[in-house]
C-alpha cells in the first residue's frame, strides 16, 4: 500500500507559501579536530547514517486530482551531495557574518521535487571552526517515524580515528535499491482503495481540489488536538504588537547565550524553575527592544507567547526514549509582562503562569527529555512548530520554545560541538520565533525574524544579555 502522508503532515505542505517556508533548522558550531573536518568528511558521515533514516531518501508525490493525500516515494535518482552542501565565509568569518548567511539559507523553501532536507557545512569561521546549518521540512520530521538528521550525526563519543580515511567505504546508500516510482494509474488506484476504507475522505479530497488547499490544511490543523480547539474558543485575541506583521520573503537571524549556572543562581535567589528564568529573560529582552523602538509601555502591557510544552499521554507511567516520541507537544499561551519594570516581579508573574500550565498538563521533566539518545531538541522543535501552527496567529504574538539539551559533549565525527542555536520557522503573521536550548553548561537563544519587521534583531539579541545581567544584579 501507498505510504501516505498524514493529514497533519500534508497540511504543512498545503500551508507553505514562497514567503512562509515550513522547515525547522539549527546552527551548530564545531571545533575542527587535528584530523580535520571538511565537506568530504561530513558527506561521508551523513552517507553512513542515511540507512537509519529511510524517509530522507524519499520525496513527496501528489495524487492526480487530489483524490487522496500525497504519498512518500523513494527517490531513484537520490544524490546525497545535492542535500549536503558547502558554503564558506571570507576568513576569519564572524558570528554576525555566519548569522547573515543562516538567514539567507533558511529563507529559501526546500525543493519539492527532492527529499525535503538540506545540510550545509560552512567553513572559514574564526579559529578554524566550522558550522553545520540544517533545514528539515515539518512534513518530514514528525517526531514519531522520522527524527531530525542531527540526532544521528551527533554522538556522545568521537567516531573514526585521526589516521582513518573516513571518506572511503562510507556510503551504504549506494547499495540501496529503490522501489520503482508509481505511475499515475497506480497512484489513482491506491487513492481509490484507501478512500473506500474511509468513504467520507474522498469527498473532502475532491472538494479540496476545487477549493484553496489552504482551507483544507487549516481544517486539519484545527482538528489536530483538543487543546488547540479549546484554547481557540476560550482565549481572547492577543494584544496588538509589532511582532504581528505579515512576513516578507527575507529573514534575519541572531544568537545569544548565557551560562546555565547564572540562570541556576537566579532561580536559587528568586524562585521558580530554570524554564521560568528563561522566559523572564525573553520578557526582559522584549521589553528593552520595545522601549528602544519608542513604544509606550503601560505597567499592565503584555506580549503573548505560544510556549509549546511537552506532555505525557494520560496513561503514561514512565518515560523512555520511545516514550517521548509517543507523547505530544501542547500549545500553551503565556502572557509575558513586558510592562512590568521590576525584573523579579516579571519572573514571579511568569512562574505563576507557568505553574498553572504545568498543573493542567502532565509535562515531561527536563531531565527525562535529555535522556533521549542523540540531540533530542532538534526533533522537539519540529513538534513545537507543529503546535504553533495548530493555533490561529491572532491568539499569540511570538513563539518561544525552550527545550533542554544534553550537558555532555557531543561530536560530529571527531569534531566537538561547541554551541548550537535552534531556528524555528515563522508563521504567516508572526515576525519572530525564539528557540532556546541548553548544551554543556550554556543556554543558547536562536532568534529568527522577518527582515522587514525585525531589521533590528541584533538589538533584541543584545537585550537578552542585558536581561540576564539585570536579573543577576537584582537582590529582590
TrEMBL record:
MF terms from GO for this chain are: diacylglycerol O-acyltransferase activity
What family classification does the UniProt entry report for this protein? Belongs to the long-chain O-acyltransferase family.
Q: What is the lineage of its organism?
A: Bacteria, Bacillati, Actinomycetota, Actinomycetes, Pseudonocardiales
Listed under GO biological process in this entry are: biological process involved in interaction with host; glycerol metabolic process; response to hypoxia; response to nitric oxide; triglyceride biosynthetic process
Its signal peptide is none
Q: What is its EC number?
A: 2.3.1.20
Region (Disordered) residue spans: 157-177
- Amino-acid biosynthesis in keyword set: no
Short name of any one Pfam family annotated for the protein: WS_DGAT_C
Q: Name one GO cellular component term.
A: plasma membrane
Its UniProt entry gives the catalysed reaction(s) as: an acyl-CoA + a 1,2-diacyl-sn-glycerol = a triacyl-sn-glycerol + CoA
Q: What name is this protein filed under?
A: Diacylglycerol O-acyltransferase
Keywords linked to the UniProt accession? Acyltransferase, Glycerol metabolism, Lipid biosynthesis, Lipid metabolism, Transferase
Indicate yes or no for the key word Isomerase.
no
Q: Output the superkingdom of the source species.
A: Bacteria
**Ranges where the O-acyltransferase WSD1 C-terminal domain occurs:** 327-472
Ranges for the O-acyltransferase WSD1-like N-terminal domain? 5-278
Q: Which InterPro entries match?
A: Acyl_transf_WS/DGAT (IPR014292), O-acyltransferase_WSD1-like (IPR045034), O-acyltransferase_WSD1_C (IPR009721), O-acyltransferase_WSD1_N (IPR004255)
Q: In which pathway does it act?
A: Lipid metabolism; Glycerolipid metabolism; triacylglycerol biosynthesis
Amino acid at each position: 500500500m501507498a505510504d501516505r502522508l498524514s493529514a497533519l503532515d500534508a497540511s504543512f505542505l498545503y500551508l507553505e507559501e514562497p514567503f512562509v517556508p515550513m522547515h525547522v533548522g539549527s546552527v551548530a558550531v564545531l571545533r575542527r579536530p587535528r584530523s580535520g573536518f571538511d565537506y568530504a568528511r561530513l558527506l561521508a558521515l551523513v552517507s553512513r547514517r542515511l540507512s537509519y533514516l529511510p524517509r530522507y531518501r524519499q520525496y513527496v508525490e501528489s495524487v492526480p486530482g487530489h483524490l487522496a493525500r500525497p504519498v512518500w516515494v523513494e527517490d531513484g535518482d537520490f544524490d546525497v551531495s545535492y542535500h549536503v552542501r558547502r558554503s564558506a565565509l571570507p576568513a576569519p568569518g564572524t558570528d554576525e557574518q555566519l548569522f547573515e548567511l543562516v538567514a539567507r539559507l533558511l529563507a529559501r523553501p526546500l525543493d519539492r521535487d527532492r527529499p525535503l532536507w538540506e545540510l550545509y557545512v560552512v567553513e572559514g569561521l574564526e579559529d578554524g571552526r566550522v558550522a553545520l546549518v540544517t533545514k528539515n521540512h515539518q512534513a518530514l520530521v514528525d517526531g514519531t517515524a522520522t527524527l531530525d538528521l542531527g540526532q544521528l550525526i551527533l554522538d556522545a563519543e568521537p567516531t573514526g580515528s585521526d589516521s582513518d580515511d573516513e571518506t572511503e567505504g562510507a556510503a551504504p546508500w549506494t547499495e540501496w535499491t529503490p522501489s520503482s516510482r508509481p505511475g499515475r494509474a497506480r497512484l489513482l488506484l491506491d487513492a481509490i482503495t484507501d478512500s473506500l476504507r474511509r468513504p467520507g475522505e474522498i469527498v473532502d479530497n475532491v472538494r479540496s481540489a476545487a477549493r484553496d488547499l489552504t482551507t483544507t490544511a487549516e481544517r486539519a490543523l484545527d482538528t489536530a488536538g483538543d487543546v488547540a480547539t479549546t484554547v481557540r474558543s476560550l482565549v481572547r485575541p492577543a494584544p496588538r504588537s509589532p511582532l504581528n506583521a505579515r512576513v516578507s520573503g527575507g529573514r534575519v537571524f541572531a544568537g545569544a547565550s548565557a551560562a546555565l549556572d547564572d540562570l541556576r543562581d537566579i532561580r536559587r535567589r528568586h524562585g521558580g524553575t530554570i524554564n521560568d528564568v528563561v522566559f523572564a529573560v525573553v520578557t526582559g529582552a522584549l521589553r528593552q527592544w520595545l522601549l528602544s523602538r519608542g513604544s509606550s509601555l503601560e505597567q499592565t502591557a503584555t506580549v503573548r507567547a505560544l510556549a509549546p510544552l511537552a506532555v505525557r499521554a494520560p496513561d503514561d507511567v514512565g518515560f523512555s526514549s520511545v516514550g517521548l516520541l509517543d507523547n505530544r507537544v501542547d500549545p500553551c499561551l503565556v502572557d509575558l509582562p513586558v510592562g512590568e519594570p521590576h525584573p523579579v516581579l516579571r519572573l514571579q508573574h511568569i512562574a505563576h503562569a507557568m505553574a498553572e500550565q504545568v498543573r493542567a498538563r502532565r509535562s515531561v521533566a527536563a531531565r527525562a527529555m535529555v535522556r533521549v539518545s542523540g540531540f533530542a531538541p532538534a526533533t522537539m522543535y519540529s513538534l513545537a512548530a507543529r503546535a504553533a501552527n495548530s493555533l490561529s496567529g491572532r491568539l499569540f504574538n511570538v513563539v518561544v520554545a525552550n527545550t533542554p539539551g544534553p550537558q555532555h559533549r557531543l561530536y560530529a565525527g571527531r569534531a566537538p560541538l561547541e554551541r548550537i542555536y535552534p531556528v524555528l520557522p515563522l508563521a504567516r503573521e508572526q515576525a519572530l520565533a525564539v528557540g532556546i536550548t541548553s548544551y554543556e553548561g550554556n543556554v543558547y537563544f536562536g532568534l529568527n525574524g522577518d527582515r522587514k519587521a525585525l531589521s533590528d534583531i541584533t538589538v533584541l539579541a543584545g537585550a537578552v544579555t542585558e536581561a540576564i545581567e539585570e536579573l543577576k544584579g537584582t537582590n529582590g
